[in-house]
Amino acid sequence: MKFAIFSFAHMHAYSYAQALQHIHDAQLTVVADSHEERGEAAARKFGATYYKDYQDALQYGDFDAVIVCSENVHHAEMVVAAAEAHKHILCEKPLATTIADANAMITACEKNDVKLQTAFPIRFSTPLQYVKKQIDSGSLGRILALTGTNRGQNPGGWFNDMQLSGGGAVLDHTVHVIDIMRWYIGSEIAEVYAEVDRRFSDSPVDDCGLLVMEFCNGVIASHDPSWSRPKTFPTWGDVTLRVTGTDGITLVNAFGQHYTQYDDELNMVRQVPWGDNPDLEMINGFIACITNNSSPLASGTDGMRAMEVALAAYESARIRRPVSLPLS
Amino acid sequence: MKGDVINVKVVVIGAGTMGSVHAEAYASMPGVELRGIVDPRLDVAQSLAEKLGSFSYSTLDSLLMAEDPDVVDVCVPTPFHKEYIVRAAKAGKHIISEKPLDRNLSDAEDSIRVCKEHNVRLFVGQVVRFFPEYRSIRQQIVQGKLGQVGTARTFRGGSFPSGSNDWYANSKLSGTIIVDLLIHDIDFLRWCFGDVERVYAKNLVAERNRLDHAYVSLKFQNGVIAHLEGTWSAPSGFSTAIEVAGDKGLITHNSDGSVPIHSAIRQQRSGVAAVEVPSSPMIHNPYFIELEHFIHCIRTGDVADVEPEDALAALKISLAAVRSAQSGEVVTLSQARGEK
Ligand SMILES: NC(=O)c1ccc[n+]([C@@H]2O[C@H](COP(=O)([O-])OP(=O)(O)OC[C@H]3O[C@@H](n4cnc5c(N)ncnc54)[C@H](O)[C@@H]3O)[C@@H](O)[C@H]2O)c1
């Protein structure tokens, strides 16, 4: 299967391109990036044809599927155009920055009968999938509460430009874990309360927040999406969940499979992961859903629902009251 | 110890979980005499007193008649705190009470007022302030080692607590997991960050089969956002965790992760698998350190690291969280004061 990557603005594009190199019957053939230097370098590195304009790539490029890794606000136009050109799409999270954009993307993909998968690699994390099975088997009993964290560091660059990102830490780091929570318990979030602030830098966007939620089925939950890890943190951040059930509690750390390296050369202590690569499994899953014509594990609608919770968190912080979902 | 210091005479009311911890601390504390233990369950009081070389009584009155203590230490279930505080204050005794001071503001305020009127000291066992790891973390915060703090997270919990007559299972008696358990972290965070501006909380309460679970969100006046989690629904164990993130650094602590000793002991002849037992020994446990500090304040008249007004303020925040969980609304603390 031939792949294009539209934009290397999001750093995940590099790890997706690397993952493609490990997949036997996948090939990165096209790179489109309006940032010429960046795009050309990536195309050279991964042996793909470079286009400056993604519209040209759609017209002349040779590929079946595209991974969209542009700045958040540009996801919508690229996904809609790719759908109309009958390409299958794996779109970086957050799916979009408005509900209207997300709906337009989902509709365009449905209309043109192409797959739309939201890039939620954590769904493909082996430890998190293990816990999904544990919950479904009933060994934790009825689920009472879910506590999530997805902390990191301010990624810098366009992530701090509201016009391109659509939001800061809360948008960037809420969606993965909310997606996991919805998937784990098969219920939608009914209500969100959030504190959102800027406490760690002079960034014009929010860099920390804390969400407290309730699901339609009565499960209570909380999530911490803050860019609160200091420069000396031994890894990029974390994804953790505490699942509390009537018969047991499970704590899962998506990157718990690591060893510790004390590196005098770099003058730092690092956690080096050795577990399965969720990016690779996510792309394998994407290819499988195209090949088997099945539904993606994390669909466009899943992407929209998770994004909606982040938008509701911003609204709650603004009005200082809990906000009900769905947003109208 | 200076040779001329007169021993402080202490009696303990309630010989349950906390009464035993307090009584054991006093029994080994220099300059302190454990003069008696009161419990309506006389056999329980008796066996504890025997173990510690003290005396047991079935009522406070009979004890006060026989002994002339300087301090009455109240370790009865929370609903009985006020009754004993008031009786001891009227008898002119200084009082050390387990937390929470009470389950509602008016009773808590009554206790404080009566102690003032009778000119006796009142100390409330907000013991987290005496845990060395929490104390050290606070030190780093107040010294600015973390820079400007942005977020703080705490966790506290384990299996459902067992008390006499299963009193924790009635949220009206315990005051809910927020007032009984999360008040520890609420008090500690207030000690670190000052007054709270607003509170939002979710709480699954005891009536749901001893599976209490709560989240509390606090926005402090200094801007810090705090998230507290408490549970009584774990199948076993007890643990606490705290994390404080600032623009110059991050502190994380997890009680499970800082245990120096892990032993696995084969169960002799039973054929049962070995159970892993973690231990974290200290020369003095935090309760001993706390009680020794209170005794010191009684001797010297020093201001304590936790005064009754602090315990009251922590209770106010806890009750605001309970109210938020019940109403589904955000509670701002000036509003909570106004409503009282
Ligand atoms: N600081 C902490 O870490 C901590 C931990 C647990 C409990 N506590 C607090 O300590 C207090 C006691 O809790 P516990 O777990 O020890 O309870 P418990 O039930 O184990 O012990 C209470 C004891 O008081 C006795 N008692 C009951 N009613 C009495 C009365 N009217 N007069 C005299 N004695 C009476 C009971 O017989 C029992 O022996 C509570 O306020 C609780 O919130 C604090």
UniProtKB/TrEMBL annotation, chain A:
Residues 13-119 form the Gfo/Idh/MocA-like oxidoreductase N-terminal domain. PANTHER family: BILIVERDIN REDUCTASE A. SUPFAM superfamilies: Glyceraldehyde-3-phosphate dehydrogenase-like, C-terminal domain (SSF55347), NAD(P)-binding Rossmann-fold domains (SSF51735). Residues 129-248 form the GFO/IDH/MocA-like oxidoreductase domain. GO terms for molecular function: nucleotide binding. This is Dehydrogenase. Signal peptide: none annotated. InterPro entries: Gfo/Idh/MocA-like_OxRdtase_N, Gfo/Idh/MocA_Oxidoreductases, GFO_IDH_MocA-like_dom, NAD(P)-bd_dom_sf.
